[in-house]
Specification:
The chain is an alpha+beta fold. The chain is built from twelve helices and 19 strands. Pfam families: tRNA-synt_2 (PF00152), tRNA_anti-codon (PF01336).
Length: 431
């Protein structure tokens, strides 16, 4: 066996004979030449086998290969500007590991439900491979940003005794003889961590028991949630701008091939850099009313409203200062206008909706107790959270970014179900 490499490493071995462990993605033949489309998880490459350059046994072995058969392929790496990866393999030998029989996902068109039922196989396709590769790079960019900015990663619990936002959209379970819920946010715990470490972030799965079937919603999704002590509302927005810009620019730099596979127009992505435009909730309401939307002050925005607002800008846009009554209990009211809070939602362009929600948090213990009463939250369950204001309270802020919506926006993918390896939807818990 020649030197064993991966497809991603092929460019370092031009002119050399190498062996790659692969699966057959597809193939075609022109009689005396077989073109093998190969994949190994790190990329895709074409293997070209010429009949009079290999033994009859090797030729017949290649002819017998079916879609998704596994094999070791040996050949000489050649540079080819026309090839998607820039290289191809002049095949000299194949060693068949397994001949796959009746692979269900053929090159023809399949319905979404069929593909979702076979998600464990669908992720092998070029489009899904590109999507999930970009997801990986976004995750890496998130960690890189916070490491560079000296944040500490803290892991909040997934099983919690209370809700972070006082909602009823929680998955209930029993924790021995107590009630418990799957976390819908790690934010409250991250506030405690921020009082210990200054700047912290969590990154993990969250769960929302909302019976929603929209293209923007998942039952289980991943959130990154930073919290920062001694940071006010204005500083919070600037951090978000630099954070999102870092993610987008990282993808543009490192994922050109994947973006090409997805046929993603990157024109608007290339414009993503600070500062982002901002409008207040009041201004957004007037804008929507002028456009004929039937919405009143004090109502939250739906998906069509967010899309109409985003269409006015070519970058993500902050909508700030929402009414206090429609936002979470922990958000700090504007001292100059208590009926609105020091918060912002970041709306992505092109109809992808909210990707970040954030705010300055209440730091006054008396006001927080009052909000407990207004929201009818049990004092005993939140006593530890109140302690954060009783023992060294400081101005502090944070935000949460939804990973799958961010991946959908950057990749130009319509439905978030394709941006996570195994999506959990309202009527789907398989595979």
């Amino acid at each position: 066996m020649a030197l064993k490499i991966t497809i991603a490493e092929a460019g370092r071995y031009v002119g050399q004979e190498v062996t790659i462990g692969t699966w057959l993605y597809n193939k075609r033949s022109s009689g005396k030449i077989q073109f093998l489309q190969l994949r190994d998880g790190t990329g895709f490459i074409q293997g070209v086998m010429v009949k009079n350059e290999v033994s009859p046994e090797v030729w017949e072995a290649a002819k017998a290969l079916t879609q998704e058969s596994s094999l070791y392929v040996t050949g000489v790496v050649r540079k080819d500007e026309r090839a998607p990866c820039g290289y191809e393999l002049s095949v000299t030998n194949v060693e068949v590991i397994q001949i796959a029989e009746n692979y269900p996902i053929t090159p023809k068109e399949h319905g979404t439900e069929f593909l979702m039922d076979h998600r464990h196989l669908w992720i092998r396709s070029k489009r899904q491979h590109a999507l999930l590769t970009i997801r990986h790079h976004i995750i890496q960019a998130i960690h890189d940003f916070f490491n560079k900015e000296n944040f500490i990663k803290v892991d909040p619990p997934i099983l919690t005794p209370t809700s972070a936002e006082g909602t009823t959209s929680l998955f209930h379970t029993k924790y021995f003889d107590e009630d418990a819920y799957l976390s819908q946010s790690g934010q409250l715990y991250m506030e405690a961590a921020a009082m210990a470490f200054g700047k912290v972030y969590s990154f993990g799965p969250t769960f929302r028991a909302e019976k929603s079937k929209t293209r923007r919603h998942l039952i289980e999704f991943w959130m990154v949630e930073p919290e920062m002590a001694f940071v006010d509302h204005e500083e919070n927005l600037k951090i978000q701008e630099h954070f999102v810009t870092h993610i987008v620019q990282t993808v543009l730099k490192n994922c050109q091939r994947e973006l090409e596979v997805l046929e993603r127009d990157t024109t608007l992505l290339e414009k993503v850099e600070p500062p982002f435009p901002r409008i207040t909730y009041d201004e957004a309401i007037r804008l929507l009313q002028d456009k004929g939307h039937h919405i009143k002050w004090g109502e939250d925005f739906g998906a069509p409203d967010e899309t109409a607002i985003a269409e006015q800008f070519d970058k993500p846009v902050f909508i700030t200062h929402y009414p206090t009554d429609i936002k979470a209990f922990y958000m700090k009211p504007d001292p100059e206008r208590p009926e609105v809070v020091l918060c912002a939602d970041l709306i992505a362009p092109e109809g992808y909706g909210e990707i970040i929600g954030g705010s300055q948090r209440i730091d006054d213990p008396a006001l927080l107790e009052k909000r407990f009463e207004q929201h009818q939250l049990p004092r005993e369950a939140y006593q530890w959270y109140l302690d954060l204001r009783r023992y060294g309270t400081v101005p502090h802020s944070g935000f949460g970014l939804g990973l799958e919506r961010t991946v959908a926006w950057i990749t130009g993918t319509k439905h978030v179900r394709e941006t996570i390896p195994f999506p959990r939807l309202l009527n789907r818990l398989y595979p």
